[in-house]
Amino acid sequence: MNDRVTVTIEGGVADVRMVRADKMNALDDAMFEALAAAGERLKSEPGVRAAVLSGEGRAFCAGIDTGRLQNMASGERRSGEDHFLPRTRGIANQFQYAAWVWREVPVPVIAAVHGVAFGGGIQIALGCDMRYVAPDTRMSIMEMKWGLIPDMGGTQTTWRLAREDVLRELIYTGRIFSGEEALALGLATRVCADPRAEALATAREIASKNPHAVRAAKRLLNAAALAGPAAGLLAESQEESQLMASPNQLEAVKANLENRPPVFRDP
What we know:
Layout: E1 5-10, E2 13-18, H1 29-44, E3 50-55, H2 66-73, H3 81-84, H4 94-104, E4 109-113, E5 116-118, H5 120-126, E6 130-133, E7 138-140, H6 154-157, H7 164-173, E8 177-178, H8 179-185, E9 190-191, H9 195-207, H10 211-224, H11 229-243, H12 247-257
Parallel strand pairs: 2-3, 3-4, 4-6, 5-7, 6-9
Antiparallel strand pairs: 1-2, 7-8
Helix pairs in contact: 1-4, 4-5, 10-11
């Protein structure tokens, strides 16, 4: 995994880096597997309370490796049936999982995006809880350029962020837009001169909160898109019932009253 993705953990924050800088972190089979492995590790890694996903070098992720596109042009892959239809990773296939796994990581994940985020690259960022983006980042839901559709979960992660007509335009045309425009469209959380530094700062702030409450909040927000109001309100009450008077919740209250940093137990 380490020649594609590295994971460094410090102070409860996982710093996840795509490190295929010579290829602008383009997605080949090894990168798909490394992203999945990194996400799987964070699902059970002790002490992790937040994560930042970024790309080394000139780009966050340039999308699909051109070698895969050359294989398509040669007719080597004549049908997507064997590659796309099997649900090999829970509800997802192996390609979707490189983006969807960040939804399943129980702690918040912030994508720090710079350079370019094209095709699969932007879909990976959209799988994260938040996206901190440099203003001059070039972004595109680019699959239509290659005669394809967003196939890494992009149709499921974008519709809650951008207006439907805006999303349709971006997918149908595959046009490139800036980080500044991404913020205006709802696809970026924050525009930053140094996305990774600001994302790490936010992750450290999250890591200072009650980790049980943060995880409960992520579970509820993930489920909100699927649950109706009745089920959502019940789930909210169930989570709050578990948190109320728990050791970490009491520690949050005491620390605030005593004007000191809290000391939380990890889940």
